[in-house]
Amino acid sequence: MTSKVYLAMVLSGIACSAHAGVVLDIAHPRQGDWSQVVLRDDGPSSLTATTQSGGGAELDEWRITYVAPPSTGPYAASNNLAVIYESFAWDPGTDGGIAGVDVSFDLGRSFSSFAGGFSGFVRPVVRQAGTVYSVAFSSIAINDSFNPAKAMTWSLLNTNNWITLNSGTGLDLSASGDDIYFGFRWDLAVNCNGINGCNGATTVASLDNLRFDISAVNAVPEPGGLSMFLTGLGLLGCTARRRQTRVA
After folding, report:
1. Where are the chain's structural domains?
2. How many of the other CB atoms lie within 10 Å of CB of 38?
3. Of the candidates 183, 166, 77, the residue with the CA atom closest to the CA atom of residue 122
4. What digits encode the pLDDT tens for the residues 10-42?
5. What is the torsional sign of CA 113, 117, 120, 124?
6. Sequence-distant (≥ 6) Cβ neighbours of residue 66 within 8 angstroms
7. What's the pLDDT tens digit per position in 173-227?
8. Which of 65, 87, 114, 172 fits a disulfide with 118 by CB distance 3.0 to 4.6 angstroms?
9. How far apart are CA 14 and CA 228, in angstroms?
10. Number of C-beta neighbours around residue 213 at 10 A
11. Which string of DSSP letters, residue by residue, matches the chain?
12. Cα–chain-centroid distance for residue 118?
């Protein structure tokens, strides 16, 4: 069910516009709460994403597996997969426009037979009206330095260059836009230049503890409230409470 943001307002008998936010904290993702969108798959390599039990105290984490098969001739392959959290949506009509999103993921490389332990690229995404957008040049490359896993962060603003995989535009983060869903994108491409082909390679990476701290556009008092303030009739203010949604 879609979650909503409820704002607590303290007023002095007048209307006021509020601003608030939501902290979406997904400690251990469950696959049933997510959908997957294949943005590009031009083979013969394959990219799959599943949630699996991790070690120690971990409950679930995303495991990203990429397989480039052996070949007898040259080939190129590119795979791009978006994974979207479906159990929460930001409703701009109710919650207001989005000013920015602070994001953090725990990223790890479990195994890789690619040179340098390379495991692909990851970046945060949003989906609106069925289209997936991300901020241009926001990918982080996963390599040997991510074993063990470490937390990575992004600070994304509504003024950034939000584009589709093919550099399309159209994302509307204002109060008049459609609902916004949040997730991540995993990309990996290989290029075999050997005239006699290449050996196969496999990589397995992990993603866990996803956090989206969503901030609404700053509020402005409504005209009636501003008038009362200017005439000294007692505008006490308007406060909003940031709600935290924690997913076990």
Report:
1. 21-247
2. 10
3. 183
4. 222 333 444 478 999 998 899 999 999 999 999
5. positive
6. 45, 46, 47, 79, 119, 120, 188, 202, 203, 204
7. 999 999 999 999 999 999 888 888 899 999 999 999 999 999 999 744 445 544 5
8. 114
9. 8
10. 18
11. -----------SSS------EEEEEESS--GGGEEEEEEEE-SSSEEEEEEE--STT---EEEEEEEE---SS-EEEEEEEEEEEEEEEE-HHHH--EEEEEEEEEEEEEEE-SGGG--EEEEEEEEETTEEEEETT--EEE-GGGSS-EEEEEEEETTS-EE-TTS------STTSPPEEEEEEEEEEEEE--TT----EEEEEEEEEEEEEEEEPPP---HHHHHHHHTTS---------EEEEE-
12. 21
Residue entry with tokens 């556009």: 217
Q: Tell me: the pLDDT tens digits for 124-183?
A: 999 999 999 999 999 999 999 999 999 999 999 999 999 999 999 999 999 999 999 999
**pTM for this entry:** 0.81
Reference 71, options 188, 193, 200; nearest CA is 200
**What's domain 21-247's architecture?**
Sandwich (2.60)
Closest C-alpha among 235, 123, 114, 216 to residue 174: 216
Measured CA to CA, the distance from residue 182 to residue 189 in angstroms comes to 24
